[in-house]
Backbone:
């Protein structure tokens, strides 16, 4: 049987994700409470995760264990993503959104969001679905793929 599993499909239980990353279930719950990830909730209230969530969690773990960031620092870093770039561009609605001025955490973790996002499903939003791993941090912060080639040795000496 052929399956067409997408990276955003929430098919992994919290226990499976914990085993994959060798972390405690409680740690994943805590990251969710802190707004670093969004779990998909089944009708029965069970949390499910996608491969994209796993990569997000893997990067969060790396930032903590290898790069010395704490949860607050990661939250602030995530808050720098210019979400308006994924919501039709910066306009007056975005300028009136509290998230535009906030640097406390990612937009999806904010209780008070502007009209463009009030009824949105953040798990399906391109802002949450940004490729999030530790080698693409700048793409995450700037919200797009940079088109910058590495400088040649000659250029670096200038
Ligand atoms: S829909 Fe959610 S994740 Fe997307 S920009 Fe709005 S608040 Fe952020």
Residues:
């Amino acid at each position: 049987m052929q399956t067409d599993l997408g990276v955003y499909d929430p098919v992994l239980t919290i226990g499976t994700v914990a085993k994959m990353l060798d972390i405690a279930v409680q740690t994943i719950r805590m990251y969710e409470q802190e707004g670093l990830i969004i779990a998909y909730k089944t009708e029965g209230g069970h949390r499910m995760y996608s491969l994209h969530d796993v990569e997000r969690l893997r990067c969060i773990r790396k930032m903590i264990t290898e790069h010395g960031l704490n949860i607050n620092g990661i939250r602030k870093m995530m808050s720098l993503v210019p979400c308006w770039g994924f919501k039709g561009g910066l306009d007056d609605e975005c300028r009136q959104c509290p998230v535009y001025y906030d640097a406390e955490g990612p937009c999806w973790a904010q209780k008070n969001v502007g009209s463009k996002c009030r009824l949105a499903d953040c798990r399906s939003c391109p802002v949450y679905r940004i490729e999030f791993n530790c080698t693409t941090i700048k793409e995450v912060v700037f919200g797009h793929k940079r088109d910058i080639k590495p400088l040649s040795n000659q250029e670096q000496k200038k």
Residues 83, 87, 107-108, 113, 117, 120, 122, 125, 127-128 surround iron/sulfur cluster (CB under 6 Å). The first helix runs from residue 14 to 21.
